[in-house]
Amino acid sequence: MNTFYLYTTIFHLIVSIISCQQIATLEKDKVLAELRIMKHDQMEVNQNKTQEKTMKTMTNTVSVHNSTVLQTQSKETQFSSLSTTTEQTATMRKSSLSEKGKSGKGQSVTFDITSSGASALTSKATDSPSLLSRKVQGLRGRISIKKLIKVKLLDNETALKLETGQMSMEEVQAYIAQFVSKPTSIAGVYDESNKKTMSFTEASEKGLIAKTYAIEFLEAQAATGCIVDPSTGETHSAEDALEKGIISEDLKEKLTDAEKAACGYAHGGKMLSVFQAMEERILDRHRGKKMIEAQIATGGIIHPVIGIRVPLSVALENGLLNQITYQTIYDPVSNPKGFYNPETGQRAYYCELLKMCVYDIISGVYLLPFGGKQGANPTPDSVQGRLSVINTFNGVEMSAFEAFKGNHIDKKTYLFLSRQQTEWQETSVTDSNGSPLHILTDLKSGRQLCIETALRLRILESSELTKYRSGLLSIYELADLLNSRKVVFKITHCPIAGLWDVASRKRLSILKGHQLNLVDRLTALRILEAQACTGGICDPALGERVGIAEANQKGLLTDSFAQLLKQFEQAYNGFIHPQTGKNLAVAQAMQENLLSRDVGMKCLEYQLFTGGLINPKTHERMTVDEAVLGCLIDKATASQLKDEKSFSKSFTCPKTKKKINFNEVMAKGVFDGHTGFMLLEATKPQSTGCTGAFQYIWSYRHI
């Protein structure tokens, strides 16, 4: 009985345990099922949040795009069209992103090109090439848009226009054309005697120029991007030029080394620019500055990584150059002139030689003239009408403006040639009546043109002035247009109007020449006296003559000079007798003791050698005998005027530094085709202090 009870108890216990296990299993399954449901619900919530966040991001992107388009379009129809296009693009990008997320393929590349940083344009890498990886043609290969943006050659605004389709790749190529076009290096020599083009190698072999000069010019070509064939205008690397026979084998090593200035100097796993190579002491500083000067003269510093010329600001920002080095490029002390004029043997900077070049419209290259006209000292007339464009096929020569108007050269080449010879700028002044005047001034030659005068003389149309004001006509075109229409005759009855600085090829007023130490004070005063007593102070820039007061206002005189010239101005307008009120001529004023004899005789001399004595009432010129008959001069004074020996040599020639009289001064004048005035050639005196000191020391040591 007890045994049966025991078994029964054990059986119930086992059944209870099994039941508990089943219940536990059921509870466990139930809990797991509930957990699965909760996890599924949580995943749905997270997925919904992710989708909402994605939609919000895309909506913001569309909003930013729409805002940008709204700012760049002026018409509602254009805005509507661009807005719709942007929304469709955003939808397509969202779909593409979703599909790529599912497949696990594709990456997104983000590049912030907004100035505020509040929004970014994202370029998705699809099966077609990315926008930033698209390339344009450079100097020595193709360059990606990404690199152009990285070095800041393309700004954010341009990149934004490219991204939104407002600018095409062709427009980008045109935008950077000035940085990737053929360098304006000197390609060869132009023999003016037989009108033939030669490479530097050929000119050297024929003995026309020294071989060292030829090598320097070829190295400059290589350092600015390429070796140029002057007969065809084609550009080559040093290796290609050797294969085509443009250079000889012995020059290959030198030119390949010079090419590093454009391709970069390999150092420490990086490609360095010329300046950076100088800083790392792997390039001689003098040689490096010589290359930098050539690059600047031919279009700009070359970025070695992307192989493209960049503006000065970009070069400084990217560390391709520093401000101190740039400021000393044309300092003759820290950077002596590194090239030579093949004809004269004189040292010169590359930019100075480039200004002497002519442009060949057949091959499209710049050639250095040799022989003939280049050796003579340039006159004001020859500089103004310089023929800088040639046709080597038929030997025709023309000015840059003539070539441009005849469609022989494009506007870019015309502007480059014009900037080599001139530097025009516009300023506003007021005349003696307070009326505004707009003056075009060539800072290089000293010429000036007045827009109001041109309108009054009808050599400028109002429509042309409107084009200039709107930017359709450059200041160089306007100046050349006015100069081409001017008819200039020699101005008679006028003394020397100014100076012609032979070295700088620039016309100067007498005062400016004195301030630059081109003429001594006494000679300057004598010339100004002659101007004042024959019709007014001369402005050699504009071709005008003005009174002393206006000349002082325009900077043609100082106060001290103006004070000394008052009596000479009266010699032209007449002396008013204090008692009778009569207007007296010079000799009459001398007799009435209104004018000293010394000053009076100088006035009569100036008037006589500029065309005759002046009647102050009519300003007519007359001979000495006619003046005697008209009672404007007495016979004794007239007799003294006829004796040329009585004229003192009170002038110093600003060129030869010899003493001369006023008649000899007039004979030395050179004609200025810009104004019709006569100018006096001037040069700065050569310093002899160092020579004297050397001679003193030498003499002392050899006593």
From TrEMBL:
Signal peptide annotation: 1-20
One annotated GO biological process: wound healing
Assigned GO CC terms: cytoplasm; desmosome; intercalated disc; intermediate filament; plasma membrane
Subcellular location(s) of the protein: Cell junction, Desmosome; Cell membrane
Pfam families: Plectin (PF00681)
Gene3D superfamilies linked to this entry: 3.30.160.780, Plakin repeat
InterPro entries per UniProt: Plakin, Plakin_repeat_sf, Plectin_repeat
Keywords: Cell junction, Cell membrane, Coiled coil, Membrane, Phosphoprotein, Repeat, Signal
GO MF annotation, one: structural molecule activity
Biased composition (Polar residues): 73-93
Chain residue ranges for the region called Disordered: 73-108
Family: Belongs to the plakin or cytolinker family.
PANTHER family per the UniProt record, alphabetical: DESMOPLAKIN (PTHR23169:SF26), ENVOPLAKIN (PTHR23169)
Protein name: Plectin-like
Gene for this chain: LOC116223339
